[in-house]
Amino acid sequence: xxxxxxxxxxxxxxxxxxxxxxxxxxxxxxxxxxxxxxxxxxxxxxxxxxxxxxxxxxxxxxxxxxxxxxxxxxxxxxxxxxxxxxxxxxxxxxxxxxxxxxxxxx
Amino acid sequence: xxxxxxxxxxxxxxxxxxxxxxxxxxxxxxxxxxxxxxxxxxxxxxxxxxxxxxxxxxxxxxxxxxxxxxxxxxxxxxxxxxxxxxxxxxxxxxxxxxxxxxxxxxxxxxxxxxxx
Lengths: 106, 116
Description:
The complex is a heterodimer of chains A (106) and B (116).
Chain A: E1 9-12, E2 18-23, E3 33-37, E4 44-47, E5 61-66, E6 69-74, E7 83-91, E8 94-97, E9 101-105
Parallel strand pairs in A: 1-9
Antiparallel strand pairs in A: 2-6, 3-4, 3-7, 5-6, 7-8, 7-9
Chain B: E1 3-7, E2 10-12, E3 18-25, E4 34-39, E5 45-51, E6 58-60, E7 68-73, E8 78-83, E9 92-99, E10 103-106, E11 110-114
Parallel strand pairs in B: 2-11
Antiparallel strand pairs in B: 1-3, 3-8, 4-5, 4-9, 5-6, 7-8, 9-10, 9-11
C-alpha cells in the first residue's frame, strides 16, 4: 500500500523559514495537499494541488512537489504557525495521509 | 458560511453498532463529494470513506471495508456513516469533510469510543 513519510518534528525560530517534507514513491505524479491542525481544533487546508493556497491562508505558506518529495514551506514563521502539519495524496481512490509533523516555533 | 456538524458519537461496546450523521449547510451539498476522516486519540489522520455527489461512487479504507457503510441524503443535506462490528481500534474523533482532490472544509468532529 502507498505510504507518505513525514519527519515527526521540525523546529524553527520566529521569522525564519520552516520546511516540512513529505516523501512517497513517485509523489510528483500525484497532487499533494497540506493541512494544519492546532491542539483541540479540526484540520485546516493550507495548500492544495501541490502549491495552491486556499482563500484566507497567509501567503507565507507555499508548497512544491518534485520527484518523491513534496515540501511545505512557511516563510517568516510566526508563533501562531506552531501546529501539527499533515500531507495528503490520493492512491487508488483512497486518501493517504502522512504521519504528521509537529512544528515548534522557538 | 460552510458548516458541517457531526452527531451520533458516543460509547459503544466492542462488536456494537453506531450511526454517525453530518448536517451540511452554506453550500450546494448535492454538488460535492463528501468523506469521513478519523483521528485516534493522540494519533494522526486516517481516511475512512468517501461518497460522490450523487452517491454513484463509494470508497472505503481497507480497515473498515465490510463493516462501515457510507450514505447520503441530498434532500436533507446530510451524510451518514453506519458503523458495525466496532473494535477498540475504531476509537477516534470522526470528521465529516468536504472535498474532491483535497479536503477544504472539516466539521468539528464527533468522538466514538469503543470499550467494554
